[in-house]
Amino acid sequence: MLAKRMIPCLDVTDGRVVKGINFVDLTDVGDPVEIAKAYYEQGCDELVFLDITATHEKRETMVEVVRQTANQVFIPFTVGGGIRTIEDMNRMLKAGADKVAINSAAVHDPDLIRQGAEKFGNQCIVVAIDAKRVGHSWHVFVTGGREDTGIDAIEWAKKVVSLGAGELLVTSMDKDGTKSGYDCALYQAIGEVVSVPMIASGGAGKEQDLVDVFQQTPVTAALAASIFHYGELSIAETKQTLADAGIPVRL
What we know:
The chain has 251 residues and is of the alpha/beta class. It is built from 10 helices and 12 strands. The protein has an 8-stranded parallel beta barrel with strand order 1-4-5-6-7-10-11-12, surrounded by 6 helices.
């Protein structure tokens, strides 16, 4: 069985790592390159950088941060935020990213997924889905969680995989920053209709939350920010807890 992955997430704005709750009330956490290096040395499996205001403010994602990180960190890392074209993808991958994540751009032009997969390979294309419960279903939100597209998140997951997405990064907006546990129902529902690797994001507050999401859903990776940024949990301790629970991880 493939090892489950622990992935710290660095939300970046104006070249600094920030953290919020439910996508708002952002506070400064530190320098992205320094934080990425520290996580790498602690034994994380991958990293995700999200330039969380790039799409909203129509700015390009920070190429220089990516380049500096690639010189310090020797594990796969994904970059998202403000990536709207094949040229944007190429710039990030050339700067040192292993994968690119697209969200708003994929909704506005789904064919971008196919184009990216054909040019760079499916394994490089991560589709990020920001999902929020609306009534009895989940809707896809874009523009940094500001806009409800009305698109059903489960159906959207099926569509993006059919277009060539090699991985999904699914964030529960309801759980984001709350430390109240992952939205296991959301990941179970998506896992029933797709077979590509899926990263769960939003809600990690304690080690048991990570155990639960791996035991109760088919996700292949769990992403966390607050608990690692503020030193509440260490990656090594968390991995040991997962291993003790019978979940395959790289120690």
